[in-house]
Amino acid sequence: MKKILTLIAVAAIFISCGEARKSTSGQPMESISLKGRKWKLIEIYGQPVAGKINNKEPFIEFNEGEENRYAASGGCNGLGGTYELSDHGRIQFKQGMSTMMACNDMTIENQLKKVFAAADNYTIANNILSLNKAKMAPLARFEWVDLAKETAQLNGTWEADYISGPRIAFNGLYPDKKPVITFNLPDTIATGNSSCNNFRVTFKIKGSAIQFGLPMATKMACPGEGESTFFKTLQRVNRFSVSGTTLNLIVGDIAVMRLQKKS
């Protein structure tokens, strides 16, 4: 009888250990969503990462769509591409297009690119995402960002200082007055000035996803291509990211418009 009781006790211990392996956070790992969240980079190759690099927050974000796209930054360029998930927390990144800016400190960005190339699995525990290679120490660790708080950071007036795509340099497009846009959530109508006409535009927002309607503007005749470039770019935007006093409006993986907070 004693032997039977001992075997039962040992079996119970093994079952308990098996349950604990589900997640160090006390939840089965598959119940903690990787997608639809923004994760702030806090550690890379065992070293802590500053909250801002080149005055930008390093992060990664996984979209919720079927395309399995990610967007990231090491504090300089916008990085992005696709990722594939498989059983047992396995992940593979495929890098797509990125911006090509040169920044004072490219160290974290270059290391993050190496992480994406090497990582083959991930774990989530206590709102910390780790990207790993095999069973070695984490290559990089990220902390979950509350997107509701980030959405609130969208409020205020923002002035553009960069738009990608046009053949004319930004200062040539806007020699006298730069475009501005003002958000006042939960109101879903933004107002502003295109550098020429005042406008108002509806928008839909969910997490970091944003979609603008057709702008309604005053009818003053405007020289050059500045206004049309601003409105066309706004129509293409599908995501946003706020980092301190900088707002990036993004298409897919690429920041197509950058604005600085005025108030």
How does this structure look, described?
This protein has 263 residues and is of the alpha+beta class. The protein is 20% helix and 38% strand. The chain has five helices and 18 strands. It has helices at 2-20, 107-118, 147-152, 170-173, 226-236, and strands at residues 37-44, 47-48, 59-62, 69-73, 78-86, 90-95, 121-125, 128-132, 140-145, 156-163, 180-183, 189-193, 198-206, 209-212, 216-217, 239-243, 246-251, 254-261. The strands form two sheets. Strands 1, 2, 3, 4, 5, 6, 7, 8 and 9 form a nine-stranded antiparallel sheet that branches. Strands 10, 11, 12, 13, 14, 15, 16, 17 and 18 form a nine-stranded antiparallel sheet that branches. The termini are far apart. Mean pLDDT is 85; it is low at 4-31.
In short:
The protein has five helices and 18 strands. By secondary structure, the chain is an alpha+beta fold.
What are the key terms here?
263 residues; alpha+beta; nine-stranded antiparallel sheet; single chain; Lipocalin
- Radius of gyration, CA atoms, in whole angstroms: 23 Å
**CATH class of the largest domain, please?**
Mainly Beta
Number of helices: 5
CATH topology of the largest domain: Lipocalin
The succession of helices and strands, N to C, reads HEEEEEEHEEEHEHEEEEEHEEE
User: Helix share of residues?
Assistant: 10-25%
Largest sheet: 9 strands, antiparallel
* Tally of structural domains: 2
Query: Beta-strand percentage?
Result: 35-45%
Shape: elongated
Counted beta strands = 18
**CATH architecture type of the largest domain:** Beta Barrel
The residue ranges in which pLDDT falls below 50 over 5 or more consecutive positions are 4-31
| Terminus-to-terminus distance | 77 Å
What average pLDDT do the residues reach?
85
Give the helix/strand class.
alpha+beta
